[in-house]
């Protein structure tokens, strides 16, 4: 199938946000007199969302106590959201290739809109994404296909002519549900022991530069 549009997950696929998340979570640990966590442990949890990261730092907590810590964590993250966040090294050339070929592209993330918008304010790309769909843009989110289908529509592409690239099994599931080709970003925030055999993706990218090569060769 011809690929006319590239859609990316945000955290762990397009942008390396792990350092700013790690800073915010460990600042939260210090505030609540909890032992800070290892960066690598936090990194493996980023794609699971803010609640999962808060639970990682405060195991056993639930209810109002856990929610208070989650809100504190997200507030610190919001205030420090782009200090160390960058496009994954090697992927910048792929985005430049998309711009040179005048291809449409977009972002579909489960990150809430208030964080997505704040993050993207100070991140520059060679060409502007035609679609940015956040976790609360619609009443459903990935792995439901609707966010991806809306992104395809906004990019002026049929789903079968899109590829969706993400670093979490729900990303691949969402792409399949939407009738798109899928790419697994195996360099992302994968849990320990993640294997390609468990991902029914069409394409596997071990490094960001492989996405750039794919764009050059296939698009």
From TrEMBL:
PANTHER family: PHOSPHOGLYCOLATE PHOSPHATASE. GO terms for cellular component: cytosol. Its EC number is 3.1.3.18. This is Phosphoglycolate phosphatase. It holds the Pfam family HAD_2. GO terms for molecular function: metal ion binding; phosphoglycolate phosphatase activity. The keyword Magnesium applies. Gene3D superfamilies: HAD superfamily/HAD-like, Putative phosphatase, domain 2. GO terms for biological process: DNA repair. NCBIfam families: HAD-SF-IA-v1, HAD-SF-IA-v3. Keywords: Carbohydrate metabolism, Hydrolase, Magnesium, Metal-binding. It comes from Hydrogenovibrio crunogenus.
């Amino acid at each position: 199938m011809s690929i006319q549009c590239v859609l990316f997950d945000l955290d762990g696929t397009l942008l390396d946000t792990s350092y700013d998340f790690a800073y915010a979570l460990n600042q939260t640990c210090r505030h609540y007199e909890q032992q800070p966590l290892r960066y690598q442990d936090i990194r493996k949890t980023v794609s699971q969302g803010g609640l999962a990261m808060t639970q990682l730092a405060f195991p056993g907590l639930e209810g109002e106590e856990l929610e208070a810590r989650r809100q504190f964590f997200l507030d610190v993250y919001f205030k420090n959201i782009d200090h160390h966040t960058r496009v994954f090294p090697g992927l910048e050339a792929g985005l430049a290739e998309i711009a040179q070929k005048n291809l449409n592209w977009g972002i579909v993330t489960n990150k809430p809109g208030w964080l997505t918008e704040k993050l993207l304010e100070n991140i520059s790309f060679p060409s502007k994404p035609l679609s940015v769909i956040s976790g609360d843009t619609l009443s459903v989110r990935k792995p439901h296909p609707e966010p991806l289908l809306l992104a395809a529509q906004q990019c002026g592409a049929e789903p079968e002519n899109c590829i969706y690239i993400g670093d979490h099994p729900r990303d691949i599931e969402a792409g399949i549900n939407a009738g798109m080709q899928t790419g697994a970003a195996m360099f992302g925030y994968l849990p320990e022991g993640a294997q390609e055999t468990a991902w029914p993706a069409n394409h596997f990218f071990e490094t960001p530069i492989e996405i750039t090569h794919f764009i050059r060769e296939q698009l």
